[in-house]
Design the sequence.
């Protein structure tokens, strides 16, 4: 029995109405796609067709209705996109469009997604103004460039996996424990930004705890000299062949109990030689508060020696306009036989105040730019104890001078 097909009208008795299909689904095959050269449009399903131009160019195209408007979406060349991949893309596009979405908008958003390296550099750019120390900003991007970018720098941010992070961290997790922890933290910071962008829902840096071995090495305290040996160290520094700026910076750091960065980046604008005070602005202090440092006679003498080294920086580095590096100062100390850290001189000073003086705890802590007492106490104690600190720093300088006079170096 012949069953007629009806586009419209009434179905007669004994007749069966079939669904109307302009073109059957999946009419193409892989061989036809590979061999067809005749110009024209070769239709498949879900609005997908292969367009062959007169010049021989061939493209996958999908006709689709997006939010009430008829659109055509290019899906690439059949030389790179197989028939199966084109069908899958067409199906996904149609499914999205039927739910009210826009396949073209999704494609634009996907193209806007950054690689991990691009995202990391963007995060670095955003955070850089908030870092007080330029060294920290450099370390953020340099450690990622060294360890993370070679492994997953070109991977799209949404595609970064825990396996990628594990591959970055495994070689250095035990050998360079502290560096590895910082790299992991910085990867996590980048991933959090990607989550905020809506590119992913998870942070792969947080999901690898059980995959990494336990780091047994604990971060040790910075090595410090006994306060009785500090004067001898300064004598060795003064007698060395190091540059004048480096030698003066080390002594000034010890005399003021200041941090390395505070000394190395000190400028003449901050120093008042007549008032014997060094005023460090808040933006250069670790705690973000301005700090006044009373200068002893010996500290003033050091500054007098530094005059003329640079118009801006008190202790310039070898490159004009650039401060000394922390590594340069550390190298000088260690080359002279003192295996300690620059920051450790603050510990030497603090131990001296505890064991050899009667200066109150809050005065010594104020000299180190530390907060003492609880929040309520600090709310009422507004003084920076400057004059008491001046007396203490003069006593510290006198102690070092006395010890220096007793030093007899042999050889």
Sequence:
């Amino acid at each position: 029995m012949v069953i007629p097909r009806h586009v419209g009208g009434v179905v007669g008795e004994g007749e069966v109405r079939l669904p109307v299909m302009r073109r059957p689904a999946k009419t193409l095959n892989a061989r036809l796609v590979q061999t067809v050269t005749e110009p024209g449009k070769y239709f498949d399903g879900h609005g997908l067709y292969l367009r062959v131009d007169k010049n021989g160019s061939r493209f996958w195209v999908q006709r689709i209705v997006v939010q009430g408007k008829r659109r055509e979406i290019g899906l690439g060349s059949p030389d790179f996109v197989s028939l199966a991949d084109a069908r899958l893309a067409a199906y996904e596009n149609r499914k999205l469009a039927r739910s009210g979405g826009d396949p073209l908008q999704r494609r634009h958003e996907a193209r806007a997604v950054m690689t991990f390296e691009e995202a990391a550099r963007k995060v670095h750019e955003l955070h850089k103004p908030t870092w007080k120390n330029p060294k920290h900003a450099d370390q953020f991007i340099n450690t990622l460039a060294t360890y993370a970018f070679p492994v997953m720098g070109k991977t799209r941010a949404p595609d970064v996996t825990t396996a990628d992070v594990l591959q970055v961290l495994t070689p250095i997790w035990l050998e360079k424990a502290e560096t590895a922890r910082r790299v992991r933290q910085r990867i996590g910071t980048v991933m959090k930004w990607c989550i905020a962008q809506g590119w992913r829902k998870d942070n792969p840096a947080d999901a690898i705890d059980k995959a990494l071995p336990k780091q047994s090495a604990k971060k040790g305290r910075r090595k410090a000299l006994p306060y009785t040996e500090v004067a001898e160290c300064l004598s060795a520094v003064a007698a060395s062949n190091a540059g004048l700026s480096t030698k003066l910076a080390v002594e000034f750091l010890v005399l003021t109990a200041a941090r390395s960065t505070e000394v190395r980046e000190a400028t003449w604008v901050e120093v008042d030689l007549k008032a014997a005070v060094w005023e460090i602005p808040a933006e250069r202090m670790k705690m973000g508060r301005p700090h006044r440092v009373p200068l002893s006679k010996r500290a003033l003498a050091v500054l007098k020696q530094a005059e003329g080294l640079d118009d801006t920086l008190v202790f310039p580095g070898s490159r004009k306009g650039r401060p000394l590096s922390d590594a340069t100062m550390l190298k000088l100390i260690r080359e002279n036989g003192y295996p300690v850290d620059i920051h450790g001189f603050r510990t030497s000073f603090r131990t001296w105040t505890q064991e050899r003086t009667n200066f109150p705890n809050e005065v010594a802590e104020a000299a180190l730019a530390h907060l003492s007492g609880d929040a309520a106490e600090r709310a009422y104690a507004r003084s920076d104890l400057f004059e008491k600190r001046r007396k203490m720093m003069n006593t510290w300088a006198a102690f070092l001078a006395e010890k220096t006079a007793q030093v007899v170096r042999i050889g």
Q: What stands out?
A: The CA atoms of residues 310 and 316 lie 6 Å apart.
